[in-house]
Specification:
Blueprint: H1 3-14, E1 56-60, H2 65-77, E2 82-86, H3 87-93, H4 100-115, E3 119-123, E4 132-136, E5 142-146, E6 179-183, H5 188-203, E7 213-217, E8 219-221, E9 233-234, H6 235-243, E10 252-256, E11 266-267, H7 270-279, E12 283-287, E13 290-291, E14 294-297, E15 300-303, H8 304-309, E16 317-322, H9 334-339, E17 346-352, H10 358-372, H11 382-397, H12 402-409, E18 410-413, E19 426-427, E20 429-431, E21 435-437, E22 443-449, E23 452-453, E24 458-463, E25 467-472, E26 478-481, E27 489-496, E28 500-501, E29 503-510, E30 517-525, E31 536-537, E32 541-550, E33 560-566, E34 571-575, E35 577-580, E36 588-590, E37 596-599, E38 607-616, E39 621-631, E40 635-643, E41 659-668, E42 677-682, E43 688-692, E44 694-697, E45 705-707, E46 712-716, E47 723-730, E48 736-742, E49 754-758, E50 762-766, E51 775-784, E52 791-792, E53 803-807, E54 814-823, E55 835-838, E56 849-850, E57 860-862, E58 871-875, E59 879-882, E60 901-903, E61 914-916, E62 925-929, E63 935-939, E64 951-952, E65 962-964, E66 973-978, E67 982-987, E68 1005-1007, ...
Parallel strand pairs: 1-2, 1-3, 3-6, 7-10, 7-12, 10-11, 12-16, 16-17, 19-28, 21-29, 31-39
Antiparallel strand pairs: 4-5, 8-9, 13-14, 14-15, 17-18, 20-22, 22-23, 22-26, 24-25, 24-27, 27-29, 30-32, 32-36, 32-37, 33-35, 33-38, 34-37, 38-39, 40-41, 41-45, 41-46, 42-44, 42-47, 43-46, 47-48, 49-50, 50-53, 51-52, 51-54, 54-55, 56-87, 57-58, 58-59, 59-60, 61-62, 62-63, 63-64, 65-66, 66-67, 67-68, ...
Helix pairs in contact: 1-11, 2-5, 3-4, 10-11, 11-12
């Protein structure tokens, strides 16, 4: 390790005193050339052994490089030579990398070794610069996003080759080698804002906030602590410990939840914290609970919405967060919101990417604070402090411990070289000459502060492309800068010292009194002597392009001699001199092309050579030093083919008595071109005779591969078990690579190829590791999933890690992949089995959202807040509700650590919530049932319970509630099945519909069936008597259809097996009336008539035997509606992974007879048109963690499957959630997350026949029912419910319709209102005015028969309903099918 690491270790071991002796100084001053020799800062594109050292590297996307160059320039001017390198350069520099993270780490490893790099800025969010996911198994198995992967550069972090990084079994070194910080910006605008804020912070910070620190601390445990209650863990204790280490010049403001125990502190509340933050501070310590999108403030929390309105002027603080996940930068997180504020907010953020452990986060916070803002003396740069904090955890971080967890999750968001102002900064007084004459050889600088000399101030003079000098002042504050510029013009002078504002100035270089030579626009040129590709390759000859200018005021002598001198041993000057004519003042002349230099043939090593160019005219000589970036090829056998059939047995294995021909493909994994490549077989083993030992290969550019033109031929006179001969790969520039080759056994094809994950433009593959003996790496093959042949993706074998990240792919595109193993002889084994993968729809910002436990509860959609956009409601450990943007509807658990919990009344919800306006007040309610406490509850959107609720059942609820008016009283009822052989029904006020078990002691029992009711009931008018029936199945093999007063005639239907599936009702058979589709565990799918009999040709066989007693449920959808065919098909997923679609007569729809997904499924499908082409798609989740989608023709849909973190056991919900016109797909997964993706295209509700579980948000299971509705049907005349709280318009029912449809609307009180309902065709022409008059407050409906005002029947099509109800306007789409 370098000396600076020893110094950091000393700070940790001995304690940091804050004195000058203990301070970690800036990086050591680089050794400078002798006086009179100019040395510009001229690093090569990629790391090299010689030339300019590079202390800092900024890695960023190509589009952000220009913005971040200003940060690199600032660091370079202040004495820390820094470069910006793009991801394109990095990926091209390592064609063998398995993924981008590995390529970045490989680049940084070589930068550390060859450039001497000490720190790196990852300039981009996680989408562009990935974090590495590592696995920790403390308390639970957790995948932690970390940047520590880029700090500890030893090993691969996957020593056991299983494709899982950071395991204890991977034996990580964990000693940081680089300081790492991340600036998480997404675009050039954000980058420019952040860099401007950084420069203002360093150059002109607001002074008042720098003398203040802010400590915010809450009681951590118990979480719902109230004053007077016993405190288990108090964040104020940590805050007080930090307070003891703060400098006297910056006393803290303290806000504690347990304020009464700490005299002088103030009560911690959200308003108080926001008010304090608006005043501005140097450092903010936040100690308490947190999550990705918020941090706790006692009983309240500060959210992202609060940050958007928070203003602290231009005071940007260092935030040190001791809380959970507020720096989860792989999501849109709290820390990013602070950092991205153009003014104020945070200048840097130290926090955790996942849940934090209190003791560990406390240690990290105290270490960072102690070093960054010490009691006395200057603090260290932030990166040093993070390094020290990680090192402090190391003794206990080698096993599965909270310290290992904390080591990985601790992250610095900000510049690692940022020194935080600990108090008001000092001002430097710098005395320097106003100008420096060409040829002066240097100048003197004096630095003072407050009238006293400043020792060890860093003085940096830079003239781009000409000279770069960094020196320190002596005890008298004086420094001599041996500065040797090449031309007149300005140069920058920067003087910096800890705890002082840097002095920045521009000084002029003035012409000399006589002639003065300057080399302008000078660069290496391989066009004359080399291959002209613009890159100097190892072994190539080159000259120079550019001009020599006389920048003096006098004429030069004649002739002028230009001389080249090599300063590094990897360059040989073959033609060192050239003469040109004398130059008048200001005149220029091109550099002669006769100068010739050769880069030495050193393979595999990209480097920077240096030459000195001297211009002499007899009276003076001027010089400049030029860096020459030398690219180097790195050749290796990429694949090979051996033929032993002439003569031989053709088995591909050379044996005694056979003659074989061995053909190779050679890859260039280096940065330079290889010209004139030749293969030579040499040093054969005993028993091997070389017949044709030479083969040629075409020239190879970096990253390319090509086959040899001829094979190597050899004969065996005896069996040779090992090495056959050495393969020499040589190029025309003197490079040679030697590979011992053998052919005893081809590498076995890799097994277990699978998709680790997909994004909108990338796919990551994983597979089981091949045996390591002789393994060189893997080849990856790819083709479009259209029958195209597989093509090689990797020009050179990847490293021997069983994963590959394929990037730059098309959106929503399906590909087929296979992989092969390659050994060090170039022997490539057979291809693995192939796998199909697709790039996915893009994820929606704000998602995924996390839940407390895995769930198979299904998402229900409904507009709960009246903004016209549906909310998402689902069950897990509690009831969750989210807005479309991923923010929670309400904080139902008063806990900022969690997000989305709507209520904690119900525990463990396997049932799926419904949404309906039960009390007909115009505002919908959430109806949910629980497993653990057997409760059914009805919640208003504000979290309060409707009067009369909750209700207690006799057993857990798996069945989902269904909503409908089952007793024709104009009011809505809640119906749900129970695991206690009960069907319950309650009115909206919580009273039971009837005493169905004749037991006054029970509440809500409507009917006592034979068997338990796991099935979710459906509600529909089966017999056409204007009264709705309830249809459900039981574990006793029965399907019931009942009125509130008992079963319909002909029911129940009885069959063997369980009827745990939920019924789907619709006009299935082409005849008047409704039918019921129902699945049984006897592996049969039934269609039943309204009279309780089997429909003709039914049942049909489907593999439905469940492992958990819960059979998948069918859905109904007209898959050929875009063709004018409204016939309903029956769609069901089998327990064996089959997906079956049946016609009404029981035949299987074309294409679906053998369609399967790759794993069993417990889910039911959703059906919706994703892309707006008029044809519906079928979406289904499976046990292999994937969501699949198929078209009506059974073809796989582009963009699928989508992979999540665990089994997909719920039904997707498909709708335009955010109102942007495109479909969103929402899914609650077994991975405890709610995922939302956006599918590009035009979404129409009319083309979503079954878009969620149980079809609609009332869970009717009726194919003709409106999807999203609040109150349907309206109350009966004279029922007298309260008017709606706001104007309201329902979706028409049914929709599509023929011949007529009903539209419900509501007028809010207290006054009558004008109502106009008009229907327009797609061209905007008015075709019918349905209503145009005043209505009383209340609910109303109107019927439309699909005819124009003039009486003519309208054609099939989509029509637009425009409604004006008082001041409100609405629109709905109506589909008429003739």
């Amino acid at each position: 390790m370098a000396a600076r690491w020893s110094l950091v270790a000393a700070i940790l071991c001995l304690g940091y005193s804050g004195t000058a002796d203990a301070r970690v100084d800036p990086a050591p001053v680089r050794s400078m050339p002798k006086a009179g020799q100019a040395t510009p800062f001229a690093p090569t594109l990629t790391p090299s052994l010689s030339g300019s050292a590079v202390e800092g590297v900024i890695l960023t996307a190509d589009s952000l490089a220009a913005a971040f160059q200003s940060l690199a320039d600032y660091h370079t001017r202040t004495g820390h030579p820094t470069v910006v390198r793009t991801l394109t350069t990095i990926r091209a520099d390592d064609p063998r990398s398995n993924d981008l993270a590995q390529a970045i780490r490989s680049f940084l490893t070589r930068a550390r070794t060859l450039w001497g790099t000490e720190w790196v800025v990852l300039a981009g969010d996680h989408e562009s610069i990935p974090l590495r996911m590592v696995r920790v198994n403390f308390s639970e198995t957790e995948e932690i996003a970390t940047d520590a992967y880029y700090a500890d550069l030893d090993g691969t972090w996957d020593a056991n080759g299983d494709g899982i990084f950071g395991e204890v079994a991977d034996s990580l070194d964990m000693e940081p080698d680089l300081l790492v910080g991340r600036i998480p910006v997404d675009n050039a605008t954000e980058a420019a804002q952040q860099l401007a804020k950084f420069l203002r912070y360093r150059r002109a910070p607001p002074v008042a906030p720098l003398s203040k620190h802010l400590l915010l601390a809450e009681v951590l445990f118990p979480r719902d602590w109230t004053p007077g209650q016993l405190v288990q863990v108090d964040g104020a204790i940590q805050a007080e410990s930090i307070r003891a280490h703060l400098p006297a010049c910056s006393p803290p403001d303290r806000y504690y939840e347990n304020q009464s125990r700490y005299p002088g502190s103030l009560p911690l509340t959200k308003p108080a914290a926001l008010a304090a933050l608006s005043r501005g501070y140097a450092v903010v310590q936040a100690i308490g609970h947190g999550s990705r999108s918020q941090i706790a403030m006692g009983t309240d929390r500060i959210t992202l919405a609060d940050l958007s309105t928070l203003s602290s002027g231009d005071s940007a603080a260092l935030w040190i967060a001791s809380n959970c996940a507020s720096a989860a930068v792989d999501f849109d997180c709290f820390a990013e919101a602070l950092l991205r504020k153009p003014f104020g907010g945070a200048i840097a953020y130290v926090g955790a990417t996942r849940d934090a452990w209190p003791g560990v986060s406390e240690d990290v916070a105290e270490t960072v604070t102690r070093l960054v803002v010490p009691t006395q003396g200057a603090g260290v740069p932030l990166g040093f402090a993070i390094d020290a904090a990680r090192r402090a955890l190391l003794p206990q971080a080698t096993g599965e411990t909270p310290q290992r967890w904390g080591y990985f999750e601790t992250i610095l968001l900000g510049d690692p070289m940022l020194r935080v102002w600990r108090c008001e900064p000092a001002t430097l007084t710098v005395t320097a000459p106003a100008s420096v004459a060409l040829g002066a050889g240097g100048f003197s600088v004096t630095v003072e502060s407050g009238g006293a000399p400043v020792e060890s101030a860093l003085v940096v003079a830079v003239k781009a492309g000409e000279d770069y000098r960094a020196v320190q002042t002596d005890a008298a504050g004086v420094a001599w800068v041996p500065f040797v510029p090449a031309s007149a013009g300005p140069f920058s002078l920067t003087v910096s010292a800890p705890d002082a504002i840097a002095f920045e100035d521009s000084i002029a270089v003035t012409p000399a009194a006589a002639s003065h030579f300057a080399f302008a626009s000078l660069e290496d040129d391989d066009a004359v002597h080399g291959d002209g590709d613009g890159t100097v390759d190892a072994g190539e000859a080159f000259g120079f392009a550019g001009n020599l200018t006389n920048s003096g005021v006098g004429a030069s002598g004649d002739p002028i001699t230009i001389e080249v001198e090599a300063l590094t041993g990897d360059l040989v000057v073959e033609q060192p001199t050239a003469d040109i004519a004398g130059l008048a003042p200001g005149a220029s002349i091109p550099i002669p092309a006769s100068l010739r230099i050769v880069a030495s043939a050193l393979p595999n090593t990209t480097r920077l050579g240096r030459v000195r160019l001297i211009a002499r005219d007899g009276s003076r000589a001027d010089t400049t030093v030029v860096g020459i970036g030398i690219a180097a090829a790195s050749l290796l056998p990429s694949a090979s083919t051996l033929a032993d059939d002439t003569p031989g047995d053709g088995d591909g294995m050379p044996e005694s008595g056979e003659t074989a021909s061995w053909s190779w493909r050679i890859a260039n994994a280096g940065s330079g071109a290889a010209r004139g490549v030749t293969l030579r077989a040499r040093t054969p083993a005993a028993g091997v005779t070389l017949l044709d030992s030479v083969a040629a290969v075409i020239d190879l550019d970096p990253g390319a591969s090509a086959p040899a033109t001829l094979p190597i031929r050899f004969a065996l006179s005896s069996s040779v078990p090992g090495r056959l001969f050495d393969l020499h790969i040589e190029d025309g520039r003197g490079h040679s690579w030697v590979f011992p080759v053998s052919r005893t056994l081809l590498p076995a094809p890799p097994t277990g190829l699978h998709v680790n994950g997909s994004t909108e433009n990338g796919i990551e593959l994983g597979w089981s590791a091949s045996p390591p003996a002789g393994l060189l790496g893997y080849h990856v093959y790819r083709a479009l999933d259209d029958g195209s042949p597989l093509g090689l993706v990797t020009s050179a074998p990847t490293r021997a890690i069983p994963l590959y990240q394929d990037t730059g792919l098309g959106l929503l595109t399906r590909y087929r992949y296979a992989v092969s193993a390659v050994d060090s002889s170039g022997n490539e084994g057979a291809l693995s089995s192939s796998v199909i993968a697709s790039t996915t729809p893009p994820g929606v910002a704000g998602w995924p959202a996390e839940m407390g436990q895995p769930t198979s509860s299904n998402i229900c959609l409904g507009d709960l807040d009246g903004d016209g956009k549906p909310e998402l409601v689902v069950g897990s450990d509690y009831l969750y509700a989210f807005h479309a943007d991923g923010t929670e509807l309400r904080d139902g658990d008063a806990n900022p650590v969690s997000t989305g919990i709507f209520s904690t009344l119900l525990h463990s919800i396997a049932s799926s919530p419904a949404i309906a306006d039960l009390d007909l007040d115009g505002t919908p309610e959430i109806i949910a049932a629980s497993w653990n406490d057997s409760l059914v509850a009805v919640f208003r959107p504000d979290g309060t319970l409707l009067p009369g609720w909750p209700k207690k059942g006799a057993a857990p609820f798996w069945s989902s509630p269904a909503i409908g008016d089952i007793d024709n009283d104009g009011q809505l009822e809640v119906v749900i099945g129970s695991n206690a052989s009960r069907l319950y029904a309650w009115h909206a006020d919580g009273t039971e519909v009837r005493d169905g078990d004749a037991n006054p002691a029970t509440d809500g029992v409507l009917f006592v069936p034979s068997g338990t009711v796991i099935s979710s009931p459906a509600i529909a008018d089966l017999d056409g008597d204007q009264t709705k029936e309830i249809v459900f199945g039981t574990s006793a093999g029965r399907v019931y259809a009942i009125h509130p007063d008992g079963p319909l005639p002909g029911w129940p239907f009885v069959a063997s097996g369980l009827f745990s599936s939920s019924p789907a009702i619709g006009n299935i058979v082409p005849a008047p009336g409704l039918e019921i589709a129902m699945a049984s565990s006897n592996d049969s799918l039934y269609v039943l008539t309204a009279a309780g009999a089997r429909a003709a040709q039914w049942p049909r066989p489907v593999e439905l035997t469940p492992g958990n007693g819960r059979t998948n449920s069918p859905v109904l959808a007209p898959l050929r509606l875009q063709l004018g065919d409204s016939t309903l098909q029956i769609i069901i997923a089998g327990a064996d992974g089959s997906l079956r679609v049946f016609e009404p007569d029981g035949t299987v729809t074309a294409g679906f007879a053998a369609l399967t997904v790759d794993a069993p499924t417990e889910a039911s499908p959703a059906v919706a048109d994703l892309n707006g082409d008029g044809a519906a798609e079928i979406l289904i989740g499976a046990e292999d963690r994937r969501v699949y989608a198929f078209g009506a023709d059974a073809a796989s849909v582009s963009g699928f499957p989508i992979e999540i973190g665990a089994e997909a056991r719920s039904t997707p919900a498909v709708w335009d959630l955010d109102g942007d016109g495109a479909a969103e797909i929402a899914l609650a997964g077994w991975d405890r997350k709610i995922h939302v993706w956006r599918y590009p295209g035009v979404f129409s509700p009319l083309s979503a026949p079954w878009p969620m579980w149980r079809h609609d948000n009332w869970h009717t299971g009726l194919a003709a029912f409106p999807i999203l509705t609040h109150a349907d049907p309206p109350p009966a005349p004279g029922a007298g419910p309260a008017p709606p709280a706001r104007p309201w318009l329902s979706q028409n029912r049914p929709n599509p319709f023929n011949p007529s449809t009903v539209i419900g609307f509501g007028v809010a009180g207290p006054e009558r209102a004008d109502v106009r309902l008009r229907v327009y065709d797609v061209s905007g022409r008015l075709v019918s005015t349905l209503v145009s008059r005043r209505f009383d407050p209340g609910y109303h409906e109107v019927r439309w028969d699909g005819r124009a005002d003039r009486g003519g029947a309208l054609a099939s099509g989509v029509y637009l309903l425009r409604a004006e109800i008082g001041p409100a306007t609405f629109s709905r789409k109506l589909a008429l099918i003739r």
